Amino acid sequence: MGSTRAVFLPLLLLAFQSLILSCCSASPKGPLSLIENVYQLGDSTADAGNLIRITGSNSEDKVSARLPYGETLGKPTDRFSDGLLMVDYITRALGLPLLNPSLARNRSFEHGANFAVGGSTVLNSSFYKAKNVAVPATNTPLRAQLQWLRSFLNSTCKSLSDCAERLRRSLVIVGEMGSNDFFLSFLQGKSIREYRNNLVRSALASLRREFPRATVLFGDYYGGYQHILRNGSHLGFDRSSRLKACCGTGGPYNVNISASCGSPGVPVCPDPSRFISWDGLHLTQEAHRRITEFILDQISPGLIRAT
Ligand SMILES: *[C@@H]1O[C@H](CO)[C@@H](O)[C@H](O)[C@H]1NC(C)=O
Ligand SMILES: *[C@@H]1O[C@H](CO)[C@@H](O)[C@H](O)[C@H]1NC(C)=O
Ligand SMILES: *[C@@H]1O[C@H](CO)[C@@H](O)[C@H](O)[C@H]1NC(C)=O
Ligand SMILES: *[C@@H]1O[C@H](CO)[C@@H](O)[C@H](O)[C@H]1NC(C)=O
Ligand SMILES: *[C@@H]1O[C@H](CO)[C@@H](O)[C@H](O)[C@H]1NC(C)=O
User: Fold this and answer.
1) 126 lines ligand 2 (CB under 6 A)
2) How remote is the CA of residue 26 from the centroid of ligand 3, in Å?
């Protein structure tokens, strides 16, 4: 294929690097304006309402559908933050509407879909079961989400060539993803060393299988996070609470898993935009905005080269 457009994927893997996958081609007229569809795969850092629609997910999983989640937007939007996520800032930068969660019925998927599900791992559940590590009820690892993407394209493209044409004008974002793989093993006292290579190899293999003609690039989500952590006060974050959750209580980090954000009586800071961490696990809208800025700056040259 000639020039490329489309696809990048920040994917949080063990080194907390992002993985950017750049695909396909088109006539060069300003790379970003040529992207018409975005497909997101990932975990709660990108979930815009899939987890709450999966039966079997428990009420704790549904906090994203209740205040204070979403408070910066004036209402809960099923996102695990006070407001928008990185994927929202990316679609906004492309001039596209926010992506609807793929499990929502009767919504528009004209410009792509969000397949991310909170709690998802990169590796198959079978990998964990074999190691006696309990897995979340929602069995939606990267591989399952890729299958959703495949079926989605199969059921919405008019033909193979229509699909190819659409992917040429698409950005596929994978990640941040991989942190749940670590949590699972860590919380259950298993060694995490062996997961490391498995994660990267498995994620890359899946992606290369799925997008054989795509270019895979790495972007640095963790670097973006470090950047705002180190340089927080220049960026408007409150220095004294840079490691504290805005929503939460107790301990040096304002986090207590027995009294987490969204539980009765758990306080919320007056101004989430001064905080990096929203609830101890997820970041604030402002942190998402800043990290997206950082990542877009970083990957733009690669994207343009690929266009
Ligand atoms: C689905 O969306 C259409 C158009 O927005 C609307 O007319 C219809 O009532 C909706 N159906 C349901 C079940 O929400
Ligand atoms: C994941 O599971 C599927 C089917 O259960 C299998 O075909 C695939 O090879 C597995 N992938 C990995 C990376 O283990
Ligand atoms: C695409 O969908 C058709 C009709 O539902 C089905 O028969 C076919 O197996 C699907 N192909 C793929 C590659 O999923
Ligand atoms: C922090 O931000 C300021 C203002 O944007 C910038 O000049 C400086 O280079 C940044 N420092 C680091 C370490 O990123
Ligand atoms: C965490 O919350 C539980 C339940 O509210 C409480 O009993 C416990 O003392 C809290 N721990 C800390 C360190 O604040």
Assistant:
1) yes
2) 27
Instruction: Name the residue with the closest Cα to ligand 4, atom 7.
Output: 234
Report which of 90, 80, 112 is spatially closest to residue 99, judged by C-alpha positions. Answer: 112
- 219-257 per-position pLDDT tens digit: 677 788 889 999 999 999 999 999 999 999 999 999 998
Decide if 294 contacts 227 (C-beta within 8 A): yes
Ligand in closest contact with the CA of 106:
1
> Is the minimum distance from the CB of 154 to ligand 3 under 6 angstroms?
yes
Which stretch of DSSP H or E encloses residue 295?
Answer: helix 285-305
Asked whether 4 and 22 are in contact (CB, 8 A), the reply is: yes
Whole-prediction pTM: 0.83
C-alpha count within 13 angstroms, C-beta hemisphere, residue 250: 9
Separation of CA 67 and ligand 1 centre (Å): 26
Residue 203 token pair: 């994620």
pLDDT tens digits, one per residue of 51-104: 999 876 566 778 999 999 999 999 999 999 999 999 999 899 888 999 999 999
| CA distances, 130 to each of 21, 122, 134, 186 (Å) | 30, 16, 10, 16
Ligand 5 centroid – CA 248 distance (Å): 11
Residue 27 has pLDDT above 50, yes or no: no
Q: Which residues contact 79 (CB under 8 A, 6 or more apart)?
A: 47, 48, 49, 64, 69, 70, 85, 88
